[in-house]
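Why predict the complex rather than its parts? Because the way molecules touch one another can change local conformation, and only a joint prediction can capture that. The input here totals 228 residues.
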Amino acid sequence: AQSVSQHNHHVILSEAASLELGCNYSYGGTVNLFWYVQYPGQHLQLLLKYFSGDPLVKGIKGFEAEFIKSKFSFNLRKPSVQWSDTAEYFCAVNIWSNTGKLIFGQGTTLQVKP
Amino acid sequence: DARVTQTPRHKVTEMGQEVTMRCQPILGHNTVFWYRQTMMQGLELLAYFRNRAPLDDSGMPKDRFSAEMPDATLATLKIQPSEPRDSAVYFCASGLPNPGETQYFGPGTRLLVL
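Output of the joint prediction:
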């Protein structure tokens, strides 16, 4: 069965530190990849997504992610985190289909210390 | 600014009571998803609909959960009878079924079953 794995469950960083959150998926076909963010007490919002083209995707708030097909990975990065980036981050995969169904990873909680 | 709306935002009930959660998808979106979020299980897909028809409800406990779309502007998720283990945040999301389309999440219903 298809699955999404996020390696880091809880990450604690100081402000200005660099961030990289890992995401791997298990599916050999064409995929669309997403990162969603959930700020405390709020709903999930789209951070960025990969559909096709340039494997380096830039999203909102300075986030970016790189799709490496050979590694089945879609890691999320930010060069310098802020306290306001404290949130839970979810990686998700849409298998190339016409259902729009997403498979989510377990999520990574990021805590940024001021 | 189109948004997915959900009601109620919070619900506290006693075990055995019926709970109905409502979702209004973004106008024009014909795919609706119901998710449950808990600390232990993360985000789980319960069911999803396209053009008001259920496409997949395999993630939903059939004996007590039911999901419907009476019309294109309303999706409902019902639990009868509710149990303490149903305590969670229930999110509705809507989108279009095309590959790469973003799912837009509602604010969620935080359910506590005593």
